Amino acid sequence: MLPDGLVVRSARPVAGGSANPVWWCELDDGREVVVKVARETQPDLSEIEAEGLAALSAQGGLATPRVVTFSPRALVLEAVGTGELPPGDARFWADAGRAVARLHAVRSERFGWQRDGWLGRFRQRNTWDADGHRFFAENRILSFLDKPGAEAALDADDRAGLERVCAKLRELVPDTGASLTHGDLWRNNLIAGNAGEPVFIDPAVSYVWPEVDVAMMLFEGDVPDSFFAAYQELRPLHPDWREHARILHLREWLSMVATFGPDPERVPKIRAVIRDYA
What we know:
This protein has two domains: 8-78, Phosphorylase Kinase, domain 1, CATH 3.30.200; 90-277, Aminoglycoside 3'-phosphotransferase, Chain: A, domain 2, CATH 3.90.1200.10. 40% of the residues lie in helices and 18% in strands. The chain contains eleven helices and twelve strands. GO terms for molecular function: kinase activity. InterPro entries: Fructo-/Ketosamine-3-kinase, Kinase-like_dom_sf.
């Protein structure tokens, strides 16, 4: 599993690796690293994630773990802090909010990225496009509908409803331009660094609307208001951004349904968005 030259003395699983197993390892030379294991169907996952972490750090100024090495089967990162998130720490979340706002100041005239990436177990299409609504509709919503899990979970009315939402997207979500985004910014993709600072992990990088990142912070809840308040000190959000978030969450709900199939929690949420916005 590990690239040549690395020998593990001990290892323990790290919680949160639903798409890919993650291990906290002590090497035989005493170093501690985190190892993310790629599936056989994802031979370029490690390389793409390493590139994404580098872009977030070099271009966006985010704190990210240092990449030790990678191979087609594993990404090896320096171990940061304890790997755990300090729940409810207002200062931590305020620092994170300002860091994300600074990231979003990095702009592009086009939406997309230099190569396709991964979101969970699926390719994330990043073909460059000057039209943000078309980019999001085609690459972040409709692209999941042909996956077996989504086909099993959603019926013809659901698919038609999602197509109607996409057709109305210009009316529903404002075009705020393309910013450099983390791309999978839910609360478990932040950890506390050695000095308690926010460190960002597991990106799915692209240039897209900055609200996509902010909306993800609402996805699982439990993110303190200090994050959103600090973000808006630097980048004020649209007054209806929380409403927009329900639509932007379609990408994540569809990704999960595509992965896990019919689900009594996720499918009703997708149908609620269709009911309210199609």
